[in-house]
Design goal:
heterodimer; A: 548 residues; alpha/beta; Rossmann fold; 6-stranded mixed β-sheet; B: 361 residues; MetI-like fold; 14 helices; 2 strands; globular
Amino acid sequence: MSQPILQVRDFTVEFWVDGVWYPAAIKMNFDVKAGGTLAIVGESGSGKSTTALGVMNLLASNARTSGSVKVNGVEMLGASASALRKARGKEVAYIFQEPMTALNPVYTIGFQIVETLRTHFDMGPKQARIRAVELLTMVEIPDPDLSFDKYPHQLSGGQRQRAMIAQALACDPGLLIADEPTTALDVTIQAEILDLMRNLKSRLNSAILLITHDMGVVADMADEILVMKDGLTVEHGSADQIFNSPKHPYSKELLAAVPELGTSAKRSLDASARKQSPVIKLENVTIAYPKRGRIPEFVAVRDFSLEIYPGEIVGLVGESGSGKTTVGRAAIGLLPIKSGKLEIVGKDISNASQKDLFTLRRHTGIVFQDPASSLNPRLPIGESIGEPIFLAKLAKGDELNKKVEDLLEQVELPRSYRNRFPHELSGGQRQRVGIARALALTPDLLIADEPTSALDVSVQARFLELLLDLQDKLKFACLFISHDLAVVDILAHRIAVMQDGLLVEVGERDEILKRAKHSYTKRLIAAVPVPNPAEQKKRREARLAGKL
Amino acid sequence: MRVFKFDKNKGTKENLDLSGENAIANKETAGLSQSQIVLKRFLRHRAAVFSVGMLVSIIIFVFSAIDSKIGPISINGWWKHKTDDLPPLLYEGCPGGTVGCPTISMRPKWLGGAGIALGEHPFGQDDIGRDYFALVMRGAQRSVMVMFIIGFFAATIGIVVGAIAGYFRGWIDAVLMRFTDFIITIPSVIIGAVIGAKFGNLGAAVLAVYLGLFAWTGLSRLVRGEFLSLREREFVDAARVAGASARRIIFKHILPNAVGVIIVSVTLLLSGAILLETALSYLGFGVVSPDVSLGLLISNYQAAFSTRPWLFWYPGFFIIAIALSINFIGDGLRDAFDPRQKRAISKKERLRAMVGIRNKE
């Protein structure tokens, strides 16, 4: 047995809030060995990031830690600032979730890598540059020599994450802490980054502490898994054991909540529905952001045609920048279309005036992506929900309150929540409020723009279940926009796939998932990680073989 | 259906016990509305709370001391002298052969002083014997009134211009902001001087209104910036989808969210206003005699500074006290409205916590 690179014993982190210490991570015990990967899994607020930051001694000033954290046998808790500086970057490196904010936008990525190198080694600028280009080559950034002088904003999201990994690897650290390294990335890029991390691990024989909420990523990477809930270690075991025979009910719950591609029951639509006139009809629609000053016009969606029939859920899938949100916003009249024809409930709104749009609002509702910004923080949620009803002059005063309470009940929130403010609610609850508001006028068409992308898996599962129930009851048509094929799989009758502003493929759900015709759709499906280590290994090998 | 083995009741109680995301950060704000959170944070700022008390007591003291009129309300002052009384000049006990020195005594008898007493003319008398305490009170009344009028007009115009420019963007924004730029290029003292020369004799209130018409520029730019970022938030889209008009979105949805920036910059604008009034009056363009303002008092008696410094100290003290309290209040409000501000733990509290752990062990 080799000595573990990271040894954590009885590690407790507490935060001081308003006169009381609140524990965020309690009595953590784990080891990470060279060449091994430990994944810490849990929902937001479970203390997994806090643990990772605590290991690096990077916590906010209102935190205190106790226990022991040893890196290569050296105690890190209570170590002097200079000792910590020496260890950071050299022995322990950190990959952050959001590469755009973790890289300094005013320096080139080359400069930032060189800075790390020269802090820890006695190295001249030329030597450091050579080494940095070497690192960039290692993380497979295209044209490393040129990319050296690029600023973070000139790189794509995946390339930025690669640059950050290059920086983290600059000093061949024994331990790499990756805090949700792929959460901000598209699935195909996520697969590439995970491949890269796996290759680097085997080449450099370093240890990885992986923090994630994505069971698919865990299945792809981890040797050992530690499940956390409310700061406590719920279960700790090998990947096989946790995935195949989880002992703790919470681990089971967590695994059950992960949507898995191709496992949901068939959802059929009455044949009669397709015979009715469609709720929304887009014909060769082009949507462009007009030119502003020197920035030329940007065509976000080209020649897009889609129809949605009453009671049907259509999933719109694509990677970031493919134009799927633009379609959603145009479909509800928030963005004008440049050419083509857009019909909602039989009305042509291609060139609608404000007044036409106003009547249209009664037939449509939208659930937004970000629960933190989609509710006015200064209004009690009852007022937010009631606003469409109030503005449509359908109810007022007590009658309105009654309706709002009914809506809250419909989305399974207590009636008393009417007077609460958005910041008092969790993300999942806020998204429920978002649905309640969207359904306030019992619309014929609901646009859901990535409503679950900011939610934890178990919250997401409950949210999707609720959405399905409501759809069964109210029979509205729904355009469900998502980057997650597994989520769309649960809900949709039909799936439409977008790439670079073009509709690539559209068809019945099973047709798309099992017999996709377009190569892009196939690539998208292959890149989705499956929460099953053995299965994931098979898929990975198939994918890599396909690449070669 | 796929397996969604979740207790339905569980969904509804999710965050009531404050588990889940941001749980710890939210503990502090559980069950409070936004304004209550702001108030709580503001009350932590000791200097600001002290300044609120200070400012309120100064205003009450100043307006109750001598006869004053605020709109329809007239107040009869408790001070025995009026600003136009001409009592005989006193010279008893004055240093260096001067006359009309302050009779206020702060040193108690047991420290060898004359005991704590106001005397006949606590702040002294001016050249012709008028009671200086009454003059300073009147001056402070004027200055406070001018400050509030400037603040009111500047805030109203600044908010409306900034909100319209930021919300509608496009050519409306271009026109309004170029107009704002134009106003900014004219130094405020020069504007004040021209206005003072033209309208100074109409009284302090009219002067204040005109000054307010030129003091809104900074605020309008801030409000515009705030609107530009807030209008892209999803809740604004949600309101638009709900069918809200532009006016409703501006005033009901966006403005309350910009209130932090507005309150903070308006308070700082107020302290700027009192200094502007003082500066203009000192230069002779602001309030003119026989009316009195703090700046005018300083200007009138600047020659007497070496021989009778109290004619300088008392109005100066009131200017500093008012401007400083407002600045501290603005400071406290800015901290209270800034969600990133977290109170650091003091050394004492940290120490106590450490001891707590050791005792437990």
